[in-house]
């Protein structure tokens, strides 16, 4: 019995046992892992990155507040504060990402450098998404708070104006009779009808001032909406202005041309200002996008380097051939 077992052992040939520092390796020692990512390590690195970045930013706020010296009037200008604050925020962000990537790669338990690097990049992506969500929530809360404050201010103002108007209305109602109000309203209606009656066909010299001004307003509105006026409308406008101002036709025509030139110049200036504002906004948006992309890329590079540094060293594996 023992002889046959011994023969079977020798007939099987040499057997290789892979050992780690003399201990056999197996599935129980993590050699054959069913998953290549550890989300616990990624989330732990993300938490460290966010907390470290926030802590450093708070420290920067404290340092900046200490630099303000209103009593001695020795406070840095706004440009210096802006540049210093921006640099500090970037450095704080990168330090947080570096530490988070190092922790994520270290806690993943892998000795594969590629796996460690991917854990660091996964932490970077998770932290970026979380930071975006937090910033969006803060911005939404700030807008909501501002809207509520403005609503309360305008609501209080409207309430005060309403109370004042109510009191004034009561006082006016006590001092004004219905007959006087009806007479005033009818007078305004009659004046409007007289201004609009006979415009466009009557002799400007025979029209009253309200009629001439109403027709001048109509022609001017057509000039703005339709562009260049026909010669008939220009002559009519010149005659109305001459009659209204008591000046000659030539002087009225000069006034019309001067007003048109001034209006055209202002329109051109407004258009130029609008174009410059649009160009400035586009340039600012492009610069912000470029800087954001550069910051994301720099964060990914720092996270990758830190993850490679945090990856565990590969274990020393020995292969021992034992013959029985």
What does the average pLDDT come to? 75
Tally of strands: 3
SSE order? HEEHHHHHHHE
Fraction of helical residues: over 70%
Shape: elongated
Distance between the termini: 17 Å
Question: Helix count, per DSSP?
Answer: 8
Instruction: Pick out the low-confidence regions.
Output: 1-34, 318-324
Explain the overall architecture.
76% of the residues lie in helices and 4% in strands. With 324 residues, it is mainly alpha-helical. Strands 2-1-3 form a 3-stranded antiparallel β-sheet, with no helix packed on it.
Keywords:
324 residues; mainly alpha; elongated
Question: Could you give a short description of this structure?
Answer:
This protein is mainly α and 324 residues long. The chain has helices at 2-11, 39-67, 78-107, 113-175, 178-196, 209-226, 231-245, 249-310, and strands spanning 15-20, 23-24, 317-322.
SSE topology:
Blueprint: H1 2-11, E1 15-20, E2 23-24, H2 39-67, H3 78-107, H4 113-175, H5 178-196, H6 209-226, H7 231-245, H8 249-310, E3 317-322
Antiparallel strand pairs: 1-2, 1-3
Helix pairs in contact: 2-3, 2-4, 3-4, 3-8, 4-8, 5-6, 6-7, 7-8
